[in-house]
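Worked Example 4.2. Consider the chain below.
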Amino acid sequence: MITKSIPSLFTVANLFLGIVAIILVFPENAKPEVAAMMVIIAMLMDGVDGRVARALNAQSEFGKELDSLSDVISFGVAPAFIMYSVAFQELTPAPAWIITALFPICGALRLARFNVISSMPGYFIGLPIPAAGGVLATLALFHHEIAVSVLMASTLILSFLMVSTIKYPNFKKVGIPKNAIWVIPIIVVIAVVLGILFPHHLSKIIFVPLVLYALYGLKKNVDRRLPGRKRKRRMIEAQLPEEPAEHSA
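Applying the procedure from the previous section yields the following structure tokens:
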């Protein structure tokens, strides 16, 4: 019984960190760098819980639903609050509130779709909410360098990518051997210590791979729709008529 509860503990830790991130952007705290780091550490927890569940053979519908509810808070509400607190607060309320609310709404829609529709093997349909939330939370740290209009547009684009049908690589199936689970608490502790010691710099560094992942799916989708790409693909297929059918995409 205890073994089967271990994955849920990581999920609850994910939720806890999301709530802490929200608290840290209240005016009396005003620590957006630490809040963004809490979202990043929550991403680590989110990546670990499913792998631990598979390693322990403790997957359940309860865990799946708890994970989705936690993700809405940690990667939907918390990043939106971080962005609002550092960049949108001085704007006219209507657009600022709508754009802020739209992000977690699209995240919730994306999670609901994920729970009821089977995704393609090896791919997510739409940008996963942890990646979108990580990009938004770390992007907010650049509010002094980036115009507010660009931050607003970026928030809208990330919201759209979550509910889009663009395919993104799925790394969640990369499992953890059962005899290596003991390493996970060490990794988590190291991540927490680094996050607390270097919240500002580490968050900005992590922003780079996250935004590249978000742009990767967008680029692949655009490439598939370009007429030139389609013509090139047809020409290659025409030059190789002897190839068996299973080799064609």
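Residues 61-88 form the longest helix (28 residues). DSSP finds nine helices and two strands in the chain. Compare this with Example 4.1 before moving on.
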